[in-house]
Amino acid sequence: MSLHDALTALRHGGNLLSPAALDGLPPNEEPRDGLADRLRAALVAFDPEKPKGDALGALLDAVLTAAAGLRLTRRSGSALGAEDAEKLLDGTALKPRRLWVGPDGESLAVFTTAVPRLGVGKGRRSVAQVQEYLRRRRAPLALLTNGSQWRLLWADADASAWVEWDADRWLDADQLSDELHALRRLL
């Protein structure tokens, strides 16, 4: 399945990348041996109904570092300070849970939420807050997840776009799905 086909099969809003831009993305490195097992273990350990320990943090690391191959400078937890937060219009101070920074200053802020559905009902607020964060930072992309759904968001002053993955569709038996390969390639 092509990257374009994999992305059009997902839930999305707006036009995140044109077909020509998708074709121009660099290919993924081959996934490391055991990636499917590591990802399965992290997904099983994460139970949104009964969160234990830092299962979501372990899942973030499995997806972003092991699966997507983000090997950039990462900051998380207490390493993220007030300079990484934005005060939003509703008075909320929003700070990412993880922040990856590349060698040329590119960044990916990763936000987490406990809402059961991203962009639906109470989940609309989380999406709107991340979009406001992006606009205030003039940053192009962020990732928002509740552990089960993963939404890549783009926002500028006038428009926004997104694409969303369901984590329970990342594995096809013992193989990585085309949807996960699409996430890996975009990130």
Question: Can you describe this structure?
Answer:
- This protein is of the alpha+beta class and 187 residues long.
- It has one domain (3-186).
- It contains six helices and eleven strands.
- It has helices at residues 3-8, 19-23, 35-45, 55-67, 123-137, 178-186, and strands at residues 11-13, 73-76, 86-87, 93-94, 98-101, 107-112, 141-145, 149-155, 160-166, 171-172, 175-176.
- The strands form three sheets. A seven-stranded mixed β-sheet has the order 1-9-8-7-6-5-2.
- Strand 8 (149-155) and strand 9 form a beta hairpin.
- Helix 3 packs antiparallel against helix 4 (55-67).
- The longest helix has 15 residues, at 123-137.
- It is globular, with a radius of gyration of 16 Å.
- It starts with a helix and ends with a helix.
Q: Outline of this structure?
A:
By secondary structure, the protein is of the alpha+beta class. Helix content is 32%, strand content 24%.
